Amino acid sequence: MKSKTQLRVTEMSCQGCVRSIETKLSGLAGVTYAHVNLGEGTAHIEFDDEQTDPAKFIAALDQIGFQATQL
Prior knowledge:
Blueprint: E1 2-10, H1 15-26, E2 31-37, E3 42-48, H2 54-63, E4 67-70
Antiparallel strand pairs: 1-3, 1-4, 2-3
């Protein structure tokens, strides 16, 4: 089933960070959409909840040096 979530992401400082985060999230199984807003410090994600969940997004961002929490 298609679901949406929003994450608060810290440690972002530039468009390179945005691209890294969007690339990482988009590459996860089940993710159909990932958009990061640098100004707001958020990531908006659409995903298939039968394949993945927000805990996996948070763990994936931690792997590349960003802290995230679900809003």
